[in-house]
Structures are given as structure tokens and as C-alpha cells.
Write a structure and sequence with these properties.
By secondary structure, the protein is mainly beta. The chain has two domains: 18-97, Thrombin, subunit H, CATH 2.40.10.480; 108-180, no CATH class. 0% of the residues lie in helices and 35% in strands. It contains no helices and twelve strands. The strands form three sheets. A four-stranded antiparallel beta sheet has the order 1-2-3-4, with no helix packed on it.
Amino acid sequence: VLDQGSHLRPLHQAHDSKEGVSDIKYSPNNRFLAVATFDTWIDLYNVDKGYSRMARCSGHSATVRGLDWSTDSSMVQTASADLELLLWNARTGKQITLPQRDAAWATYTVALGFSVMGIFPPFADGTEINSVDRSKDQKFIVTADDHGMVKMFNYPCVVEDAPHRAYRGHSSHVMGVRFNADDSLRSDHICH
């Protein structure tokens, strides 16, 4: 973890993962840090207590590909390479098994869930979407896929084979996509 000030300096170093880190995000209240790993677990750290590990979320059977915090910093949602979406209590690290369909998420970067079920093309097996990002204003969701495409949908995207704009520019797999900090690099006239 690096200091975000004028000088890049380590804030904390840990070696809690054997296989490496796949995603990392601070909670909206900046009090916690979630770290998803290729080891199939998520470590939760307490920033206020010197990045001490407060919980390990174990339950995935494949690499954790992404995570998002709820807006109130009480839950974490995670998606794994085997297309499993799990929810976690951010204080205890225990899995939440009750439906949380109406939960509000600070970010949406996992390719699974009710609000993004329309991003997959017909006959998709779920593995061709490599990256997802919801705009900060929560109007759009953008995807990067195995076919060299970046696609933009209205958010939420809950209809099958949802209308979208497709942008080609890559010759092969697009592995990552993100809106910039103020959403200024997007089209305001998409999917109307």
C-alpha cells in the first residue's frame, strides 16, 4: 500500500498471500482495506490499526478476480474465476448467505450479479468478460472482453442481450477497463 501524497512511500507491507494479489480496494469510509488473492481468499485489514489483518474471507474455490465494497462499508462482494459471487460481512469476514439484491455498492467492478446480468452476449459461457466498471454517476457499465471489444451499457443492465455501444481497437483480449475519476471520458449519448 502506497502513500497517496506527493511522495510515493510504502504505508504497509504484508506477505499474507502465497499466490499474489488480484484486486485491492479501500472501503468508502477509508477505515478498511480488502485484498483479493489468487489463493482464493480475501483478507480484510483495519487501516486505523496499522493495517492489522482483522479477517480472512474463505469460501471461493477459484481465484478471486474482483471485489467491491458496499456504500456503508459493511459488506464486500467478490467474484471468482469459476463464476461464483459471494458476499462477506466486512467486520467478521463471515459469508453472508441471505440475498442482498438491493445492496448499494460503492463501486461495481465484478462481472456477476443482478444489476449486470445483461452484459453477456447470447450463448456466452461467462468467461469472456475480463473486466467491468460502473461509472461514478452510476449511469453506465463498461466491459472488456476476449474478442478485443470494449462495450458500454446503461446501468443497471438487467435485460438479456442488452443494447450497448461496442468499441474495437484491440486486436485480441482486452484485460482491463476503467472510467476515469470524473467520468469525463465517456459518451453521454449511449443506448438512448
